[in-house]
Specification:
Number of helices: 3
Largest sheet: 4 strands, antiparallel
Oligomer: single chain
CATH architecture: Roll
Strand order of the largest sheet: 2-3-4-11
Radius of gyration: 17 Å
Length: 176
């Protein structure tokens, strides 16, 4: 009986972890249409509207040519910034060595408002988990130095978090 209960718990847990994205394009058009982005063929995309170049995968994942493999790595706010610096110091990614954490308005530009679970265009950013990603935007004001903003590709939205919290990271650069 215990074996059956354990198997059921594992199956039920797996079912909630593998969720199907839902998009409603009947009411409004996509906010991040695939046509707005240029596929650079190297694991990056350029947003033709903003001029920003994005890594298609979160840090810790690897671009296979069609999707992101592996599990994203969770970082504190500082360790995410350090990972971007280390990547650049080691020669960069896709022939560029000026990758950085996006500020909250930049990361919000790739949120797909017509989709849920995750709130992202999965054609552009496959295998993106429906959870929080760090931004480079720190909180301002007395007593808020230990916080930065995070943005969720799930239902939570955006908000402040202590910088020692663990979240994923996706890097960006200006493609000018």
């Amino acid at each position: 009986m215990k074996k059956i209960a354990c198997v059921m718990v594992l199956v039920m847990g797996a079912a909630t972890a593998v969720a199907n994205q839902q998009c409603d394009t009947q009411s409004y058009p996509m906010s991040t249409p695939t046509e707005r982005f240029t596929d650079n063929g190297d694991g990056t995309l350029t947003d033709t509207q903003s001029g920003m170049m994005w890594m298609r995968c979160a840090l810790g994942q690897r671009w296979t040519g069609s999707r992101c493999s592996g599990k994203p790595q969770a970082f504190t706010w500082k360790s995410a910034q350090d990972a971007a610096s280390a990547l650049n110091a080691a020669g960069g990614y896709a022939k560029h060595a000026d990758w950085r954490m996006p500020h909250i308005p930049e990361l919000a530009m790739i949120i797909e408002r017509q989709c849920a679970n995750p709130r992202v265009n999965l054609t552009l950013f496959p295998d993106t988990p429906a959870t929080y990603f760090w931004t480079a935007t720190g909180r301002r004001g007395p007593g808020k130095e230990g916080e930065a903003y995070r943005l969720s590709f799930g239902p939570e939205g955006a908000g402040p978090e202590r910088k020692d919290g663990l979240h994923y990271a996706r890097l960006v650069r200006a493609d000018k």
